[in-house]
Every structure is written in C-alpha cells, then in structure tokens.
Hints:
Chain A is of the alpha/beta class. Chain A is built from 18 helices and 15 strands. By secondary structure, chain C is mostly helical. Chain C has helices spanning about 1-10, 15-55, 70-75, 80-110, 115-125, 130-140, 150-155, 170-195, 200-210, 215-225, 225-240, 245-250, 265-275, 280-305. In chain C, α4 (about 80-110) runs antiparallel to α11 and α6 crosses α8 (about 170-195). Chains in contact: A-B, A-C, B-C. The interface between B and C is large, with 89 and 99 residues.
Amino acid sequence: MRVFRCMLVGLLLSFGAMTAARAQTVEIEYWQYVFEARIKAMDELIKRFQAANPTIKVKHTTFPYADYQTKIAAAMPAGQGPDVVQLFYGWLDNFVAAKFIQPLPHDVFPPAMIEKEFYGIVSAMKRNGEYYGLPTAVRSLGLFYNKNLFKEAGLDPANPPKTLDQFLDAAKKTTKRDASGNLLSEGVTLDFPGQDYHWWREVLLRQMGGAPYSADNRKVTYDSEAGVRALNYYADLQRVHKVGQVGFMDEGQAAFRAGRAAMTIDGTFRLGSFGGIKSFEWGVTELPASADGTRSNFASYWVNAITTRPTGAKLDAAKKFLAYLTSPEAMQVWLDTVGELPARKAVAETPQNLSHPIYAPFLKALAYSQATVFVDESAQRQVSLDMINRVLIQNQDAKASLAEAAKNEQAILDRFYKK
Amino acid sequence: MAAIRITPGRTIVWLLLLLGGIAMLTPLLFMFSTSLKDSADVYDLRLIPAAPTLDNYAKVLSDGRFLRWLANSFGIATLVTISNVFFDSLVGYTLAKYRFRGRYVVFLAILSTLMIPTEMLVIPWYVMARNFGWLDTYWGIMFPGMMTAFGTFLMKQFFETIPDDFLEAARVDGLNEFAIFWRVAMPLVTPALSALAIFTFLGNWTAFIWPLIVTTSKELYTLPVGLSSFAVEQAIQWELIMTGAALATLPTLAVFLVLQRYIVRGVVLAGLKG
Amino acid sequence: MNASSSRVEAGTGARFAFSLRQKQVVWAWTFLAVPILFYALIRFYPTAEAFYLSVTNWNLLSKPDFIGLSNFERLFADPVFWKVFRNTVLYLAIGTPVSLLLSFTIAYHLDHVRFMHGFIRALYFLPFLTTAAAMAWVWRWFYQPVPIGFFNDVLVGFGLSQQPFLRSTTQALPSVLAPAIWAGLGFQVVIFLAGLRAIPATYYEAARIDGVSDLTILRRITLPLLKPTIIFLVVFSSIGFLRIFDQVYNMTSGDPGGPLNATKPLVLMIYQTAFSSFQMGYAAAQTVVLFIVLLAVSLLQLRLLRDR
C-alpha cells in the first residue's frame, strides 16, 4: 500500500514538474527564406540551441524568396509573424520604417563589441547610432572558372586571370561558336539579374574611377565618365568581344553548371549548388583587378533581427537566440553547411580558412568590399536591369541609358529620404 | 455528316490535320521526354531519350512536396466542385422554376457578377482573408469560388427545359420542394451537371493567381503554385522542372483519356448554352 | 396551367390555394438564402471595397486616407501604365483573331473528316487540359537560344538565324502569347465543331443541288448560322486574353513583365503594385481600370457583332 502511495506521489510530483516546466517553456518563431542549405544549417543550429536552452522552443518557418517580403509585410501588421527574422540587409530601411524590427538591445549586443569583432561592412546596419541586425555570415563575389575548359583552351588552370585584361583574354580564348556563329560555350556569363549588376556597380565602376552614390548615400553619382566606361566595358563583352551572351542557357549559373561557360562571377551562395558539379573541375579566384591594381568587391549579407513583436519572456528568449545565431559556433556551422563566410573577423581569418582554395578568395575580398545601402532593393535592381536592357536590346548609347537610370534611381532615393 | 468522297484533296487535308494535331502535342512530348532524361542528356534534343531514367521522378517525389501539392489541389478542386454543383443547381433551379417577386432582380444581380473580373476582387478578398484569419488556410483558397454565376446560368438554362408537369406531379405526390429538386429535377439534367463538374474541377485544378496570393506555407500550395516555386527554386535545372510540369499534367491527362466522351460533351453543352 | 389548377383548388378552399403559392415562395427564398449571402459577401461587397480602396492611399500598414482621384491621375501620368495598357490590348488584338482563325479552320476541315475524327480531335483538345503555369515553363525552355532551345535549333537547322524570343522587346509579347493561344485552341475547336454540327444538313444539300460553290456555302450559309457560336467565342477568348497572367509570371520570372516592360499586362502590374510594393490603394485603382476595360470590350463586341 505504501509502495503504491509512494508511486502515486512520485507520479504526481513528476507530472507537476513536467507541467511546470512546460508552463515555463517559451516558444519563439524564426523566419527565413527558402534555400536548402540555409534551412539545413538553421535546423542544426536550432537543435543545438534548444539542447542548451531547454525552456526555449524555436519554430522555424520559411517562404520562397519571391514571396518572403510580402509574407512579412502581411503578417506583422496583423499581429502575426516572427519574433526573430532574417532579412536581406538591403531591406533594413523598409523594415525599420514600417516598425517591423527593433534596435538590438545594448546589454547583449553593445555597439562597441560589434564594431570590434565584426567586419566593417556590418556598419550598414547602423541607423542613428543603433544596430538593427547582425549577420551570421557574409558573402562576397568571386570569379568561378571551369578548369577543364581552361585546359582545353591552352590556359593554365592553376593560374586564373588576375587583371581585367587577362580576364578578357581568357574569355576570348574559351569562347566556342559553331560554323554559323552561334554560341556553343561562352567565355564568361552575362547575367545582370544575377550578380553582374553588383559587379558593375561596386567593382567595375570603382575600378574605372567612379562611385555609385554620394557619401551619405542620398545621391546617385554613377552617371559619370567612369560610369560610361564601366557600362561600356560590360556591354562590350557581348557587343564587341562576343565572349558572352545575355540569356544563354537562360541563366548564367545554369550555363556554368552545364559546363558551357568558362567563367562566371557569382557569390559564395552559389557554392552549395556548384558543389554538386561532377562533370568538370572548377576553381575560384578573386575578381580581376584593374590595370592599376584597384580591387573592389560587393559584400552582402542576410541579418537576423528581433521584430517588434516579442516582449517579456519572449524577448529574452529572442535575445538569447540571436546571440547564439551570431556566435562563433553558429558561424562555423554556417560556413560548413552553407559555405558563407563568418561575419566575425576572428572566426573567418583562421590560417585554415585563409589557405582554403575555395574560401580564401572570398575572404580576402572582405577586406576591400562594399555593401551598398539600398533603400528599395527590388526597385533599384529593376532600374539596373532596364539600364542594361536598353543598351543591349535597344542599342541605346551607354551615356543616355546611364542618365535615364540615374534619374529613375534618384527618384526612388528621393521618395524614400523625403519621407 | 453526309457521305464523303475520298479525293486526293481531302486526303491531304486529313494529313495536314493529323500533322497539326501531332504538332500541338510537341510541347507535351518534349516535357515528358525531358523528364526521363539524365541532366547530362537534357541538352540533347532528341525526342526519345538515349538512356531513359526515372531518377528525376524519384528525386522530385522523394521530398514529399509534390504529393502534398497534388493532394491539396485534388482536395480543394473536389470540394469546390461539389459546392458548385450543389449551389449553382439550387439557384439555377429556383430561378428557372419558381415565380416570385424579386426573381428578376436576383437574376440580374447574379448576372452582373459575370462582369466583375476576379482580378479586381483579389485585393478585397486578401483583406477579408487577412481580417478573418483565413490567410494561409485551405478555406482561404476555396472561399471565393464556392459558387459561380456561370455555373448558375448553365444550370438555369437546363432546368428551364424540364416540363413543369413533372414537378407538379411530384408535388401532388406529396414530395416537399427540396425533394422535388433533388430527386426529380436533378437527375434530369445530369449532362449539364457533369459539364459543370468538369469545368469547375479543371478551373480549380489549374488556378494560379489567387492560391499564389493567399498561401504562405508551402504545405498549402496547390500544384501550379508549388510547381512555379519549385521551378524558380531549382535555379533552372530543366530536367527537374520538366518532371514537375509532367507531374502536374499527368493527372488531368489520365482523367481525360478515361472520360473523354463526357468531357467533350460537357464543353459542347457549356458552349452552346452559354 | 398552374394558375388554373390552383384556381380550381381555390374554389374548394381559397385559403389553401393561397398558402400553397406562398409556401413555394418561402421555399424559393430559403433556397436562395445562403447563395444570396455568398454573392453579397464575396462579389458585391468586395467590388464596392475595391472601388473604395481605389480612392484611398492605403498601403497595408497605416489607415487609409481618402485622396480622391489622385491614384488615377498618377496612373494616367505614368508612361509604364500606358505601355502596360498597350500590351494588354495587344494580347487581345493578336490573340483573339489568331486563335479564332486557326480554330475555325481546323474545325471546318475536321468536320468533314470521318476516319480517326475522335483521335484527331483529342490531339487538339489535350492542351486545353494542361496547367498554364506548368506549360509556361515548357515553352520558356523552347524559346532558349541554341543549343538548348527547340525553336532555335530548328531555325538554325534550316540555315536561318537564331531569334531572341523572350529576350527581345518586340518578340517577347507574342512569345508569351503563344502558349495561351495554344492551350485555348482545343476548346474553341470543340465548340466550333458543335456549332457546325448543329447546322442542318438540308441547307447544304439544297445548296449543292443549286450548284453553289464551297466557298459561297461557307460565306452565305455556314458563317451566318455560326454567329452565336462566334460571338460566344469572341467574347470568351477576349476576356481570357485581357486577363493573361500565369504565362507572363512564369516565363519572365527573372525580370517580371520584361524585358523593359515589353510583356507586362495589367494583371501583372496589379499584382506587383499590391503584393510587391503593398500599395493597395494604387493597385485597387488599377483593378478599376481593368474592370472598365473588360466591360467596355465585352459590350462593344456584343454590340458590333449583334447588329451585323
């Protein structure tokens, strides 16, 4: 009888303990966009975080990239949506203006610590002295090249092009056409909707001596002599040198993956997809420098931010989760799974990483990268797309097309900053 | 058709028609052909794959999404079809067989909704769904299409052909009005019902813009929306995209082959009475 | 007949006949209750709301403010809108005549075919059952440049030069329109076949006895008798082409409505305004314009075709 009573008490106690523990469990929701490797990485991070923090549960929700912003914009005003959200750094202004995210609390994320330990490009997340988001990983651009095609063309696969002239030369040598002149394999992919518009705006433009925006980011400054030269350089790849063609194989990275493009400029986020390539060997090198040695690169990143939704216990949980997401451990997991570079300098610049054949070119670029401060990334992107389309499809003069693009983009900037 | 003389002219015409028909099928043939090709063979444009493989289907079906989307589309299309068959018939019957004040007003009101494009209503529906918490739910996908004016008028036309005597006789026999509708009138218009069912099902199976707008979670996608997101996500791996498209098309093709006669008859009925 | 029979019953019991009639009216309204509620909530109220939103500046986040007709002013001053409007009209102006001409030709000749009639008819009809979004991707693949695009491979095989198709500002719109025409042909062929079948053979026999040529038969007998069918198909397909969306969205996913807005129809503009830029008021104004265009086109066609 006593045994039975003991068992009963024990059962009741443990039941009570269970419900008490469950009553203390806080659930927070995390949103990011659909990208297989990132989802896998995040699931692993959540697993580790929940193991270390048994009273916090993280619900992981994802949406396709095309709908991502729309879903957030629909959910937040309706009182739904995430507690911690991942957003493209270029969307920061929209999110802050719409009051979707709050400044990072100083107790866990002091600005001094951020500035010391993270790469400088993170400063694009500062508004009025407050940091609104922190990345787990950053991405930069690199020049991918097909070693097999290089060998076929008589180029040394261990010695990829380092300057723009060498780059053009390699492209010409690796371009293949059939008897009627139709492109069979291109020297370099031309894909403005991909990463090329970043290459033009932050790299080529600067290498020709120009700058895309004024120091306060409010004025468009690329309709200059340098801008014309940069735009012509890019357009001439198709028009004059015929080493590439917009729309070949539909998308640049499809052409590269099919082994029909000798070179492509793309970001670290492509590493996962290119990792599945079995039919040829490929390598990466830094983007070509200009003749006088100027190098530049475009860095971008997705940041994690705390939305304006959580308060009290949920806010604490959100802070803990965000701190974990930006910890060295998380960054290493992200590097291994997604292939994106750690946002903390110490984690990124290990001897192992700096001599890694794939990561090293991207890492070295972080030292001289720029992160453009977008106010409306999709609208500004469309302006660039239209600009190159006018030049390549409608044969408009580069100077005129630049002027029109500058006018349109300035209107976007003005509309935003006048608010 | 009167007896046809077989002349060289007619034979050529027949041949051209046949070739034209086969040409019409070219996109479908290539779609299926590519879905059976390995990624290396995709760019070799032969119709019969050199080394046919079902790997793509295995790959696409393995993560369960496509099956989920198939089930979603099927479930939603079925439910909406049942709702339409019931309510459109009910309203059509009422407008055809009852005399009451206000009948003409109701008739005109429903007629007028034919003029309103759904694209115009998408924004208010979105707001409504958001306010009622129907965003990202099956009901959210279904609610706008539960009844249509087109279906109502189709049924009204057919109910009008039923002689009133049948209904009167049933009344004299003591059946209540609903029983008269359900057990006397409905069986007399089965060709129209099947036509309505086919159209409604097909329309909902292929619907794109509204499910695209109202759904958030990929578990709730209908097949067209799922395929679209899948294609963009696949960053142009054509063999997988074609496999997805094939999976989206196979069910309707299979149904057509089985129910061909009814489907064509249904289309004809709808067109003639429309 | 009903009236008289109820009057006979009225003779035996006036109250009975009256309530019998009334009962039917009650039943009628009962049947109509839920549907009326549905149409009111799902068709009429949203229509009113769309018109209301079109005169506000609502953007999903703040409260809507009444701004009169300034959405429309902004719309009519926007050159992109006029480009989009022109595209939408083009989709109609090219789509309807081409598809009707094709489908009538096919139906006319198929009508005279007996051998394998059902099989050939099925060949033309199958595309109608496909999902527009899925087939858009197939056609998009067809339009690629050599070496993966089927059309360009054929052109090059015949010694002709490649065409940019979706990458050209002039060819893109017809390229996007093609799958829409392709899918709709089967439906139109079947309807035309039914219409042709409904013409009594006696007309043809009489004409043949009189020695009238085939062409004259077509012009004087067949086409006039097919008028209701033609009207139905013209209005039906016009509305479909004016509302084109699925194909454009899927075939221009990298540069929606492009290149340089060459393919953007009104519905895509509405979608982007509402669900990419969240400018609900502005988007609602665009839907009002779409509504007016659809209404005008339908009424115009009905008027023009009826009076002839």
